[in-house]
Design goal:
Layout: H1 2-25, E1 47-55, E2 61-71, H2 82-87, H3 105-111, H4 114-117, H5 121-133, H6 138-141
Antiparallel strand pairs: 1-2
Keywords: Signal
Organism: Vicia faba (Broad bean)
Pfam family, one: PAR1
Amino acid sequence: MASNFIIRCLVTVSIVMSLGLTGTLGGIECENLSKETCSFAVSSSSKRCVLEKHVKRTGEEAYTCKTSNIEADKLKDHIESDQCIKACNLDRLSLGISSDALLESHFLEKLCSPQCYKNCPNVVDLYFNLAASVGVFLPKFCGLDDV
């Protein structure tokens, strides 16, 4: 009876430790991400990933994922969910990011929607900082009451 308890405890501790080590040792490196997962991802060092496109001499397009110098606030090891990509009207193959998106009414409508704004903190943090860099306070820009 006691041996079953000890075995269960050891198994539980082993699982917990292996999960902890995976997060620590096997974190996300932007350079290892595919073009389908790169945009809106955050590395294990809290740096945002950015998708870049290069045209080879043959005319073929090649995509690479790079680590940017932009740090995500309180987030690391994150690949954005399909739900947030859809809710926020994002494109997985986005190249870079521009404040021009904040001028597009359809994009802004999706970004400010409760489905995106309240459920996708990574996206909101990214665009909050982007808006701030051009002197705009995103919650006020979205017309949110809890400003």
